[in-house]
Every structure is written in C-alpha cells, then in structure tokens.
Amino acid sequence: MVQWAMKGMSLRDEDQAREILWPRGLVCNWGRAARGIPVDKISERLTPESIRTHVDGFSTIDPLTKKKFFEESPYISLSSGTVERDSVNRANHIYTARRTAMQFGSRFGESDTAYIFTCWVLVAPRMAAEIYGVAEEVRNLTVYPSYSDFADQGEIAAKLHIPANQIERCEKWVRKAPREAYEPAWVVKNEGRFIPPERLSSVRDLL
Fold first, then answer.
1. What is the Cα–Cα distance from 152 to 84, expressed in whole angstroms?
2. SS3 state at 21
3. Contact of 26 with 6, CB cutoff 8 Å
4. Which terminus of the chain has a lower count of CB atoms within 10 Å, N or C?
5. What's the mean pLDDT when you consider all of the chain?
6. Do strands 82-86 and 91-95 pair parallel, antiparallel, or not at all (unpaired)?
7. Per its UniProt entry, which superkingdom is the organism in (predicted)?
C-alpha cells in the first residue's frame, strides 16, 4: 500500500531544507549520527521491540546505544492524520497530518519557523518491523492495538531513509510574533526529480 505522509522539521535554514528535498532525502537520526547507515547493524536495530520503543519510549535509554532512544532512532516519524472516536459524545475527531507536522516543525510553538515535507512511503499491511523497505502504520489499531498516549499524531514510522525522489515538496511556514498564526512563506516542489506514487497501485491520501 502507498501512503502519503508529512514530516515537520525545525531546521537551521532554507539551504538545509533544500538539501533534504534534493539530493539527501529524509534520513533517520541513527543514520545522521553515524554519518551513514551501518548496514551490518540494521537487523539488530529494526525489531518489534524497537518500533514500540520509538512510539512510546522515545526518551528512554536504548540498551544498545546507552543513549536516549530518539538520539539514534532508526525510524523516521511521519504523520498521515488519524480519527479519534468519542463514544461519549457520539462524534469522530479528525487530527490532520498537517496539524501534527506543524507541531513538530515549530517545536510545539517554540520556533517561529517550521518546514513541512510531503512524501509517500510503502506501508506494510501488518507489523513488519524487520523489513526496512516498508513503513509501519503505527496509527492503525488493528496492527498496533496497544494503548498509546500519542495516538492522535497519526504516525507512520518509516525506516532508515526516505529517498528524495519520494518527496514531492517542502513548505516553509513562519510567524512574525509568538502569539500570531503561522503563515506560508514559500513552497518548493521537487520538479523533475519527484516520482509520483501512481506508478504503483493502491494509493491512499491524507486526512
């Protein structure tokens, strides 16, 4: 299954954003820390236990690295949006992908600038933690039924690296003062390099 997703990031400047758009792509924290992904270590890093830690124990100490898990996580957190069912009020609440991406891109309002990347990934129909060619649909309760405090983030967890040719565009959002709303400053499309997912089948859009 192909799934559209968004990634919100707080970056140094526009040049760093453009480098992600082409040629670097989105790289996991582990790959950035190691200045490349250690291929011989992938199997010990991508496990059912590590994906659960990535989701619900992001700041816990990783026994492999002896550091906080997020510092060298092999996963890339994306959002595709999700729906929360409110049985008391008989209503569904939609949490959009852009909402979550903006929260992380702005560091939850601490930064006046946020960058949002729109990309697509292949999603496994069931848990496939050890297979790095597919992302994990953490938001799907039939695949990940355990309770999570972060369910409203609508997370899709990609693994290791998202190639630049799967990133459609980058948006820069800014605000002029802490209490003002963020506004779009520019959009840069990955013209001539982006490969649309329609070359594959079963494409699902964002919420």
1. 7
2. helix
3. no
4. N
5. 93
6. antiparallel
7. Bacteria
Rounded percentage of the chain residues whose pLDDT exceeds 70: 99
| 27-47 pLDDT tens trace | 999 999 999 999 999 999 999
pTM equals 0.93
Taking the CA atoms of the chain, what radius of gyration do you get in angstroms?
17
Could you give the C-alpha distances from 147 to 90, 96, 130, 138, in angstroms and in order?
Answer: 21, 20, 22, 11
Q: Phi, psi at residue 183, to the nearest 5°?
A: -130, 150
Report which secondary-structure segment, H or E, holds 121. strand 113-122
User: Residue 53: helix, strand or coil by DSSP?
Assistant: helix
Q: Greater confidence, 15 or 149?
A: 15
Token pair for residue 114? 């946020």
- The SS3 assignment for 97 reads helix
- 3-state helix, strand, coil split of the chain in percent (to 5) is 25, 30, 45
Residue-level pLDDT at 173: 98
Pick from 20, 141, 1: which is nearest to 76 by CA?
Answer: 20
Task: Give residue-wise pLDDT tens across range 130-165.
Answer: 999 999 999 888 888 888 888 777 799 999 999 999
